[in-house]
Amino acid sequence: MADLFEIWTFIAQDNPTAADRVEEAVYRACNFLAHSPLVGRMRKDLTPLPVRFWVVQPYLNYIIVYNPEKEPLQIIRILHSARDLRSVLP
Questions:
Q1: How far is it, in rounded angstroms, from Cα 31 to Cα 16?
Q2: Phi, psi for 7 (deg, rounded to 5)
Q3: Domains in the chain, ordered, with CATH?
Q4: pLDDT tens digits for range 22-43
Q5: What pTM did the predictor assign?
Q6: Which residues of 53-86 are buried (b: 16+ CB within 10 A; e: fewer)?
Q7: 3-class secondary structure, 50
Q8: Which of 4, 12, 51, 55 is most deeply buried (CB count within 10 A of its CB)?
Q9: Residue 50: which of 39, 42, 61 has the closest Cα?
């Protein structure tokens, strides 16, 4: 989970407590997706891969990209929504 480490490190520079909260929210979201893998949205405009996108609550700037067809659930990327998603997705 290099993406999560990068996110945590960036936020922690200013506020380690906030970084911990975001990290916990990402883990909760991943756990939720593992139990409900089809809840995310497909984005054919961003990638032809059979992946889905889920916005981390309550941190709406963070998106989990995952493959619901894999067992166990495969997290592809965890990204900030301001990034050029097309350029960073496989």
A1: 23
A2: -65, -50
A3: 2-88 (3.30.2310.20)
A4: 999 999 999 999 999 999 999 9
A5: 0.92
A6: bbebeebeebbbbbebeeeebebbbbbeeeeebe
A7: coil
A8: 51
A9: 42
> Looking up tokens 């990034």, which residue turns up?
83
Q: Are 51 and 42 in contact (CB under 8 A)?
A: yes
List the structure tokens of 17: 């407590």
Task: Determine the 3-state secondary structure of 19 from DSSP.
Answer: helix
Residue 58 DSSP class = S
How far does the chain reach from its first CA to its final CA, in angstroms?
16
Which residue is associated with the tokens 């495969």? 74
